[in-house]
Write a structure and sequence with these properties.
Residues 1-29 and 204-211 have low confidence and may be disordered. The chain is an alpha+beta fold. The strands form two sheets. The chain has a five-stranded antiparallel beta sheet with strand order 6-5-4-1-7. Strands 2-3 form a two-stranded antiparallel ribbon. The chain contains eight helices and seven strands; from the N terminus they run ααβαααβαβββββαα. It has one domain.
């Protein structure tokens, strides 16, 4: 058994012991770090599952489905296609309809968003059982770094299937009551890029990533 598998299983075992009120206080001591993995597509995840003793195709499907739900409402949006492509890469953006985004009845005018570029996955508790969970990831064209929908930089680097250390709480979908207004060029420029601008726009982020 590899060290990575040992860490994953021990983390899941520890998380199963955090029930009821203890989950509320997870970061106070009950929650332990676990391995978080990222893939760009489900096909890549399936290939990883084929050689993994702790990952299945069903896990890949479940995590991707969760990531797609968050992506539809929480993905960064921009006032122009050019601005979106500057931040995420040429050909990697489109209208919400093209990119799998939900309609935005709150803001007039056009908006553009990146396609779902990848997703991170790990284990979370549901009904006392550990199950796969996922969140969407977006790549910054300038730095090559991977960010969450809230603009938090992750520790992922290199090829899909890479692992970083983090908490299960890192997989919590952000609470969103409405789609944020599309970011303007001035907003992105002033903040210093997608990640910082998105963090400011959402007013939230989350911790728990290892280096």
């Amino acid at each position: 058994m590899t060290p990575t598998r040992k860490r994953s299983r021990s983390a899941r075992a520890a998380l199963k012991g955090c029930t009821g009120a203890a989950l509320v206080l997870a970061l106070a001591g009950c929650e332990e770090e676990q391995d978080l993995t990222f893939f760009e597509t489900k096909a890549q995840c399936y290939r990883g599952a084929a050689v993994s003793g702790s990952l299945s195709e069903a896990d890949c499907d479940a995590a991707f489905a969760e990531a797609a739900i968050e992506h539809a409402v929480a993905a960064p949006r921009y006032e122009s296609l050019a601005l979106c492509e500057e931040e995420h890469g040429e050909g990697l953006c489109g209208t919400p309809e093209q990119a799998g985004g939900a309609a935005d009845p709150q803001h007039a005018g056009p908006s553009f968003m990146p396609f779902l570029m990848g997703y991170m996955m790990g284990s979370m508790l549901s009904g006392g059982q550990s199950q796969a969970a996922g969140r969407p990831l977006y790549r910054d064209a300038k730095s090559g770094s991977w960010f969450t929908s809230t603009g938090t930089r992750t520790g992922f680097s290199g090829t899909p299937g890479g692992v970083t250390r983090g908490y299960a709480s890192s997989l919590n979908r952000p609470r969103i009551s409405a789609i944020a207004a599309p970011m303007t060029r001035a907003t992105v420029t002033k903040a210093g890029g997608f990640g910082a601008a998105r963090s400011a726009a959402t007013g939230r982020g989350f911790s728990g990533f290892g280096g």
